[in-house]
Amino acid sequence: MKYFVITTNVELHLKEIITLGLTTKKDTDKIGHKGTGFKFTLAYLHRLGSCLHTRDNLLDESYTSFSKEETIKGQIHSFLYLISSKGVETPLNITTHLGEDTWNKPWFILRELIQNALDEGGKYFISDNFYEGEERTIVQIPLTSELEKAYEEIDNWFTTKLVGVYKDGPPGIFYKGFRVTEKEGFSIQWVMDINRDYLSEDRVLKTGLYNLSFYKFGNSKELAEILLANSSNEYSDDLKAAIDQVQYHSTFQENLASLLDENCVYVNQVSETLLHDIKAKGKKPTIANSSFVNMLERFNLYNKFTIASLDLSKSWEEVELSKEQKHVFAKALRITSKIRPTDCKVLVAKKLNENENWSGLADLKSNQIVIRNSIVGNLELLVKVLVHEYIHIRSRASDCSEDYEEEAVRIISKLLLGCDL
Predict the structure, then answer these.
(1) Beta strand pairing call for 89-95 and 75-84
(2) CATH architecture entry for 313-417
């Protein structure tokens, strides 16, 4: 039988094991601080068929955990105890069901033991036999197959990397070296220095809090490199959350700008005419996801990398309207007047390339909207296109982006409330 062992030269007081909520680490920068981890660990160990052995060589005391079944109100419960080397039994006043719903991954046990070793300046290792060393405190557990497998996969839940962003590590958020999130929704490894109060009892980040720390990585050139390298695909949830915060960080903007190709224009929609026009300007059209393009469009610094930097007026030609069209056009402008951006000019034009497929264009650079002349006779469609393009001007954002959707919702809400925009 193999054993997972931790050793320290610090006393492990019996009451630290048996008392729920007792901690000596509350006002320190140590990892543990809730006074519950050892108790959850003990319960889970016995659910897996293992147990805990402790030894204090200075006091010449040893303890081993075991369980006793008791019937309470007709139901059988397994209560945990410690038995000393002198035969004294000490009840822990917990059952093996403690933490059953949340402490349900074998590596949680190893994480707790390693955390305690690191907190006390100790060591951890695997022993092929029951360990009988000379260190002050020895804690060891028999390795079941589940625990042995968890240790073999230690790189998935433990890291010695410093705070930073890593594309070559297991995806997720790590705190003090330990994983505090599941892998779902993550594509890269984040090693963070977060507020430990954000952790729940099972030592994972509380729901909705993981994105609070991304702004701290605004100085990271690695993050800018990762966002650019993955820009042609839809971002994972962690990268989207990071963009929401770091895009406003001046150093991040500078880092990203230094990586972008001066000859590239980033777009998230493709049409033959658009590609032709971009190439005609001596630029290279580059497909990117809407989150990336929208981020670039927000800053004047990056305008040169988006279609907002190009004069695409050659793709259309302004036309005169018939009397009937003027009437419909004027009516549509009146209907949409409440949401029309200030100083936004609206033109009606015909396409120079009939292969193009657009009903309206929003030119963020000139703050104007171009409406295709063939739709002006259809009031409902014209109003729809005006609203769509007005939101582009207001949000300075691309189709399907979060900023575009947020602005649309904001406008609808204001109109329903009868408020000014």
Answers:
(1) antiparallel
(2) 2-Layer Sandwich (3.30)
